[in-house]
Amino acid sequence: xxxxxxxxxxxxxxxxxxxxxxxxxxxxxxxxxxxxxxxxxxxxxxxxxxxxxxxxxxxxxxxxxxxxxxxxxxxxxxxxxxxxxxxxxxxxxxxxxxxxxxxxxxxxxx
Amino acid sequence: xxxxxxxxxxxxxxxxxxxxxxxxxxxxxxxxxxxxxxxxxxxxxxxxxxxxxxxxxxxxxxxxxxxxxxxxxxxxxxxxxxxxxxxxxxxxxxxxxxxxxxxxxxxxxxxxxxxxx
Lengths: 110, 117
Hints:
The complex is a heterodimer. Chain A is mainly beta. Chain A contains no helices and eleven strands. Chain A has strands at residues 4-7, 10-14, 19-25, 32-37, 43-49, 55-58, 61-66, 71-76, 85-92, 98-100, 104-109. In chain A, strands 2, 4, 5, 9, 10 and 11 form a six-stranded mixed beta sheet that branches. Chain B is mainly β. In chain B, strand 7 and strand 8 form a beta hairpin.
């Protein structure tokens, strides 16, 4: 059974600082997703990582995937208040279903 | 990206009544749709996988007689919460994959906030 562990579960950051969210998964998969969720809203797709070594960047967020280590990271550079949200990673169980991590609540303080 | 429309976005119902939530893929056909439930400050939990023209596959612990899923066409799946109780109050989210393209990402609906009073 595929399990996805995400940490930290809560992250309080100062504006301008950098930090990384980690996503580990237990069985082989070559497809991983990062989503953002604002309070009361559904999921917003951030990144789709399709292969080992994939790296994608959008603004202050950068995601990477290491399929051999079964690890993905979401790096936040110079955080701003607008990045406050809950971030989820999800791993594709070979086209069947997505298994989600517990989520990381990010709060960026001024 | 592809659009998945979920309706209603919120609903309040009385205990004992039933509520139907619709999930439509607007610009693609979806052989498979997924239904998730999310409690406050928790992650998404898959309830069931809805397959067009066949019975849904329910995750362990999800009552199939309480959460009725119908996937009558390639663009529409419905979730009916029968005899709703306050503990069914939650955020329900559907997602769909494009049937015409193998292993594409799943697209998510806007979610439905169900409150049972």
